[in-house]
Each structure stands twice: as structure tokens, then as C-alpha cells.
Amino acid sequence: MCAGIAAAVMFACLFAGPLRAQSSADLDFLAGLPDFTRVRSMLPDYLNHLAMALLEKRRRAVGQWSSADDVRRRKAYLRERMVSACRSRRGPSAF
Known about the structure:
By secondary structure, the protein is mainly α. Helices cover 68% and strands 0% of the residues.
């Protein structure tokens, strides 16, 4: 029985080398293409650009508020939107 286990271990060791998975270099098919030199940063750059555009839009909207009444109206609008969203939500945690 001990000889059978030893043979199985030897067999596994002999054939384990060729059975390895591909290296990450083999899977990086975009590495040599000149159009994709920045492939890892393209999505984060795009999302950051969208976020900055939305923040700028919000900054301009907030900059147009000139009185406390404008702030109160915005506060009431947001409160209404949040309450309606909670009411439309189904489940035990809905208000």
C-alpha cells in the first residue's frame, strides 16, 4: 500500500509541471497593441471625467442659490424625493 502511494506521488510530480495554468503574460493579449497602451487607466479616467462633470454641474447649480428661501425649496424638494423613494420601495424596511 505504501508503494502504491509513493507511485501515485511520483506520477503526480512528473506530470504536474506540464499541467500548469497559462502564465499571465500569455493572457495579456492587449500588451503589444499600440492603441491600448493605457488600457488599465481608460475606465477610471472616463469615470473620473464623468464625476468631475457632474460635480461642476452641481457647483454651478448651488452657486445660483442666492437666498435662504432657495435653500429651503431645495431642501423640501430633496425631502419629497427621498420620502417618495422610500414609499415606492417594497419590503419590511420601507417607511
